[in-house]
Design a protein that fits this description.
The complex is a heterodimer. Chain A is an all-alpha fold. Chain A is built from 21 helices and four strands. In chain A, the strands form two sheets. In chain A, strands 1-2 form a two-stranded antiparallel sheet. In chain A, strands 3-4 form a two-stranded antiparallel ribbon. By secondary structure, chain B is mainly alpha-helical. Classes of the chains: A mainly alpha, B mainly alpha.
Chain lengths: 533, 116
């Protein structure tokens, strides 16, 4: 059954190849591409059910590529955390590819749109599944290569300029990632994450000195923060998100951003948490790499919330607003991760659950909003809030889907966003209760400010675009029915996650447990407990 | 040896960073090429050279020959992968810079319009 671990990767590769093979027949290519998206979602669902969530499931499984046993070959691991992220990727990916087929101009789809889209999905899938640090770098590159081309896709002055900046920035990030990985290899003598976790937990047994690990992990943290678009590495986000085709932006904001967050959680909580290394950050002493992560990530998260919120309020287009909003919302995801790093036991567990639930909510709601913005621009020809008005009367269905998206972003029950916000505030208050001080208080206040800013900019887009009299751009505009169908389906998912929250919560709990239970992870990769210790 | 390698890596990073901060787009592309190569040299250096044993090169054991000093093969495999990736990225960067030059009418990055 362990072949199911590799199945999503195989389906994504098949998607790339098939889309190339049928590229001479545009209609067939569009159908194939959407069908592969559906097969991908089905494969992920099967793998997750059979291996992680189902009644007979082992809870986690590893696949050794080429049959080379770990740590010599490359290992793919599907555990609770990977499963959770893969499900998010599958839902957003399917919505995004279906929407692409009916949204992107036919001629533009004929170029390399579909192979590239599946390439992006492939990179994301590999990054979520791999159990090998260098392999993670390779999947990052696969993902980035596709997104460079997507940012430059329309080929205008704006697009190429944004793509060049995006590329240069990420190449520097990749070089830093190689430095971090090479350093970790030199220190621990392995690239396999499970093996590295095992060696770091007991450095004396394998004769290594783990002291440089904290500094090297900081290099990787920079790279992952760059991918996640956290302040101070957020400056590429607005340009890239507003120039890529909007369905791809939904994918970039919904899924590839989360790869950065996932990598932070995986690296620090699964691999490095066991290392006992004295750390001293700004006079706060600790004894593991997590004590370094907590203050740094909390500061980044708080700054992202403030910068993203203020930026979103001041934008004059829908996608510009949501691009800055993505920066702020990722702040809401990493603040609980920082709280998890700062605390132990049960609070660490629920803080990670909060981060995962918020990540799920943000992926769904933000891709819904980017796709709605695409539908608005397709119908009216503009995305400036000033030029659009009275859409609610013109298309109540579009208005309804958009409304669900922004209400979820604000955090109203019974939508997915309510539980996200609720848990984030809950762990923030619990953190203050266990460790009263100015830091938890400042974090709590900035969360509150971020939530208020969210209300401001979502209200602004809503009243600006959907209420009031119809502007000239809106008069006579027709919203495509097939686009509406995708939006309604995605909005239904947002509502369903909120209404039927119990199974989602248990899934997130499984994922959080998988992230922190280092022993289980090592056990899955080294089933006989042996190997070269 | 390690001092020389450290100096080379440091020098390459310095040159790469300097080029990266230029306003001329072609220099920037040179910069990313140099920086990735610097990272590759660093990766090779991380492997180190190990004392010769038959454990390290099992294929020589049956032949009874002397084992020479052995470099770590893992990092070389990594660098090979990284070189191929940087090859592709640099090619894309060059193509993209030409298109960006055509579209923006300037090779000076600072003269391009700002993004909103």
């Amino acid at each position: 059954m362990s072949f199911l671990v590799v199945a999503p990767v195989v389906v994504a590769i098949a998607g790339v190849v098939l889309a190339f093979l049928v590229s001479r027949w545009p209609r067939v290519q569009r159908a194939t591409s959407a069908a592969t998206g559906a097969v991908y979602a089905g494969t992920v669902a099967t793998a997750v059910w059979r291996l992680v969530l189902g009644p007979d499931a082992p809870g986690a499984a590893a696949y050794q590529l080429g049959g080379h046993p770990a740590p010599f070959g490359i290992t793919l691991v599907l555990d609770g955390l990977s499963a959770f992220m893969l499900v998010v990727a599958a839902v957003v990916g399917l919505a995004s590819i279906t929407f692409s087929v009916v949204f992107v101009e036919r001629d533009n789809q004929r170029v390399y749109y579909h192979p590239l889209f599946h390439c992006l999905l492939l990179g994301v899938t590999g990054a979520f599944l791999t159990g090998d640090l260098f392999n993670l770098f390779v999947w990052f590159e696969v993902m980035l290569m596709a997104s460079y081309v997507f940012v430059a896709f329309y080929g205008g002055a704006r697009h190429t300029a944004a793509a060049v900046r995006y590329l240069v920035l990420n190449v520097v990030g990749s070089a830093l990632m190689l430095l971090g990985i090479g350093g970790l290899y030199a220190v621990t003598g392995t690239l396999n994450m499970a093996d590295m976790a095992r060696r770091l937990a007991d450095p004396a047994a394998s004769g290594i000195d783990p002291a440089p690990v904290v500094g090297l992990s900081a290099l990787l943290l920079v790279v992952f923060a760059l991918k996640a678009g956290l302040v101070p590495f957020q400056f590429w986000v607005p340009a890239a998100y507003t120039t890529a085709p909007l369905p791809v932006t939904a994918m970039l904001a919904g899924v590839t951003k989360k790869v950065g967050v996932y990598a932070i959680v995986r690296l620090y909580f699964t691999v490095l948490a066991g290392a006992a290394i004295p750390v001293d950050v700004l006079g706060v002493a600790g004894d593991s790499p997590l004590s370094f992560l907590a203050p740094v990530l909390a500061a980044m998260g708080v700054a992202s919330i403030v910068v993203g919120g203020l930026g979103a309020v001041s934008r004059d287009t829908l996608e510009g607003t949501f691009a800055y909003s993505s920066v702020g919302q990722v702040g809401f995801i990493v603040v609980p991760v920082a709280i998890a790093a700062a605390s132990t036991g049960q609070l660490r567990q629920i803080a990670l659950v909060a981060a995962l639930v918020y990540a799920l909510h943000h992926s769904l709601a933000k891709s819904l909003l980017f796709l709605s913005a695409a539908a608005v621009s397709d119908a009216t020809g503009t995305n400036r809030v000033r030029d659009v008005g009275g859409l609610a009367g013109r298309s109540p269905v579009l208005a309804g889907a958009f409304f669900v998206g922004i209400l979820s972003l604000v955090g109203l029950p019974p939508l997915a966003g309510f539980f996200g916000k609720f848990f984030v505030f809950d762990v923030s208050i619990r953190w203050y209760a266990t460790a009263p001080g100015w830091a938890p208080l400042a974090v709590f206040l900035s969360l509150l400010a971020g939530a208020l800013l969210t209300i401001v900019y979502t209200t602004r887009t809503w009243t600006g675009c959907f209420w009031g009299a119809e502007t000239p751009a809106v008069e006579g505009s027709v919203v495509d029915g097939r686009q509406l169908a995708v939006l309604v389906a995605l909005a239904a998912v947002v509502v369903a996650v909120g209404v039927g929250f119990d199974p989602v919560y248990r899934f997130a709990e499984t994922a959080a447990t998988a992230a922190t239970e280092r022993g289980d992870y090592v056990e899955v990769v080294f089933p006989d407990g042996g190997g070269a210790a | 040896m390690s001092v020389a390698l450290a100096a080379v890596v440091g020098g390459l990073f310095a040159v790469g960073t300097f080029l990266l901060l230029r306003r001329n787009l072609v220099r920037v592309v040179w910069g990313i090429a140099v920086i990735t190569q610097a990272a590759n040299v660093y990766l090779i250096a991380m492997g180190g050279v190990q004392a010769p044993t038959h454990d390290l090169v099992p294929v020589l054991e049956g032949h009874g020959s002397e084992v020479p000093q052995t470099a770590d093969p893992v990092v070389q495999a990594l660098v090979l992968t990284a070189i191929v990736i940087s090859f592709g990225t640099t090619a894309l960067a060059l193509a993209l810079s030409f298109r960006a030059y055509e579209e923006n009418g300037s090779i000076d990055v600072a003269e391009w319009g700002e993004e909103g």
